[in-house]
Write a structure and sequence with these properties.
CATH architecture of the largest domain: Alpha-Beta Complex
Helix content: 25-40%
Radius of gyration: 22 Å
Largest sheet: 11 strands, antiparallel
Number of domains: 2
Strand content: 15-25%
Distance between the termini: 59 Å
Structural class: alpha+beta
CATH superfamily of the largest domain: Streptopain (SpeB)
CATH class of the largest domain: Alpha Beta
Number of helices: 8
C-alpha cells in the first residue's frame, strides 16, 4: 500500500514540475471529461482545431467542438490554466473567425507565448485535477446566467437602415460591434421608450447621417431575440446607436470609440449618468473581476471593449465561478460562451491589458417616468 501511494505521489510530482506542450489527445481528453461532467452524459469530440496565434510555431489553443453543439477551448501548454473557454450548446466555427473573437484568441496566444518564454513557472495544478476527473474547480458556487437573451448581429438584416454599399452584407455597411453591443444591452432593459435630443455627423464616404432620438419611439415588443429577415424596429435601433457614436461606417467593418458609446447611452438614450468607462489596467485582475461580478450581480449587462490594431466591443452578461465570464459577441449567437478572464499564469503579464468596461450602465429612473415596468434588481429576467 505504501509503495502504491509513493508511486502516485511521484507521478503527481513529475506532472507538477515537468512543463510541456499539451498534445491534441490530452486536450480532447480534458474537453470530453469537462463537457461530460457539465452535461451529465458521455460526450465525444466532433472536431479539433489547433489554433496558432501570430508568430506562433505550434498551437496555442485547441478548439474542441461537439455535435450538435458545445465547445471547449483548451490551452496548448500546461503552464497555463487548462480551460480557456466553454459552452455546453454553443458553436465555435473556425473558418473566418470575426475580428473581435480573433482579437480575444490573440490575447490568449500572446499570454501563452510569454509563458513559454519563462521556464521558471510551474505547471498549473488544474491539469492534474482534470486528468484525474476532478472537476471541483468547475463546481458553480457563484453564478449569474446570461442576462441578454438576444443573439443579434452586425450584418444583414440587422444593418438594413445603415448606409447602402453594394460591397457590404445585404448591400449595406456593417452596423458595427459598438452599435450591436449597445443595442443588445438596451434590449435587455427594453428601454428607453423614446430617446432624447438629435444628432448629425458626416460619415466619410457615406455623407451626413442624422437622427432625431427625441422623436423616436422604440418598439421593444416588436424586437425578437433573433431575426432572419428585415425587422425595421431592430434596424432603427442599430442605426440610431451608430449615429449616436459617430460610427465610422465601412462595407468590411464599422468602428467607433467606446467613450462615445457611454456618452450616447447617457445623452441620447437616457441611461444613468453615473455610467463610466473603466480600464482594466488600472486595477489588479482580482479587483477587476470583482467589479465585473458586482455589476452582473445587480442584473446589469456590461459593455466590454478590447483593442489591438482596431477596437472591439461585445457584451459581458453573466459569469460562472470566479474567472469565467459569459460573452455575447454580437455575431448571431456564434462563439457565445464562458471565457477565462484572468492571467493564464500568476506570473504572466496582465491578460486584461487594453480591456475596458462601461460599468453602472442602466436606465436612469430619477429623470424618467417610463421606467415603471423595469426592475433594477439582479433578478431581472431577459426579454
Amino acid at each position: 500500500m505504501k509503495k502504491q501511494l509513493l508511486i502516485v505521489l511521484l507521478v503527481t510530482l513529475c506532472w507538477m514540475i515537468s512543463a510541456e506542450k499539451v498534445e491534441e489527445s490530452t486536450a480532447i481528453r480534458i474537453a470530453e471529461g469537462l463537457m461530460g461532467n457539465m452535461t451529465n452524459r458521455t460526450m465525444t469530440a466532433f472536431s479539433v482545431h489547433p489554433y496558432m496565434g501570430q508568430d506562433a510555431s505550434s498551437p496555442d489553443i485547441y478548439i474542441v467542438s461537439f455535435s450538435p453543439g458545445g465547445f471547449v477551448l483548451v490551452a496548448a501548454d500546461d503552464l497555463s490554466a487548462p480551460v480557456l473557454g466553454y459552452s455546453t450548446n454553443g458553436l465555435f466555427p473556425t473558418k473566418e473567425i470575426p475580428a473581435h473573437v480573433e482579437w480575444y484568441l490573440g490575447q490568449y496566444s500572446r499570454s501563452m507565448q510569454e509563458i513559454r518564454a519563462n521556464s521558471h513557472w510551474s505547471v498549473d495544478p488544474g491539469w492534474n485535477k482534470l486528468l484525474r476527473k476532478d472537476f471541483s474547480d468547475f463546481v458553480i458556487t457563484r453564478d449569474v446566467a446570461p442576462l441578454c437573451a438576444t443573439t443579434w448581429d452586425q450584418g444583414w438584416p440587422y444593418n438594413s437602415l445603415c448606409p447602402p454599399d453594394a460591397s457590404g452584407p445585404g448591400g449595406h455597411v456593417y452596423a458595427g460591434c459598438v452599435a450591436t453591443a449597445m443595442a443588445q444591452i438596451m434590449k435587455k432593459w427594453n428601454y428607453p421608450v423614446t430617446g432624447n435630443g438629435s444628432h448629425s455627423y458626416y460619415a466619410d464616404g457615406y455623407g451626413t447621417q442624422s437622427v432625431n432620438f427625441g422623436a423616436t419611439t422604440y418598439n421593444w415588443s416588436l424586437m425578437p431575440n433573433s431575426i432572419s429577415q428585415e425587422n425595421i424596429h431592430i434596424s432603427t435601433l442599430l442605426y440610431h446607436c451608430g449615429v449616436g457614436v459617430d460610427m465610422m461606417y465601412s462595407y468590411d467593418g464599422s468602428g467607433a470609440y467606446s467613450d462615445d458609446a457611454r456618452d450616447a447611452m447617457v445623452n441620447y438614450f437616457r441611461y444613468n449618468n453615473a455610467a463610466q468607462l473603466h480600464w482594466a489596467s488600472d486595477y489588479s485582475s482580482t479587483i477587476w473581476a470583482s467589479m465585473l461580478r458586482s455589476d452582473l450581480d445587480q442584473g446589469r449587462p456590461i459593455y466590454y471593449r478590447g483593442q489591438n490594431d482596431g477596437g472591439h466591443a461585445f457584451v459581458l452578461d453573466g459569469y460562472q465561478g470566479t474567472n469565467y465570464f459569459h460573452f455575447n459577441w454580437g455575431w448571431s449567437g456564434y462563439y457565445d460562451g464562458y471565457f477565462y478572464l484572468s492571467n493564464l499564469n500568476p506570473g504572466s503579464h496582465s491578460f486584461t491589458q487594453y480591456q475596458g468596461a462601461i460599468l453602472n450602465l442602466y436606465p436612469n429612473p430619477v429623470i424618467n417616468n417610463d421606467l415603471a415596468a423595469v426592475s433594477l434588481s439582479g433578478n431581472t429576467a431577459p426579454t
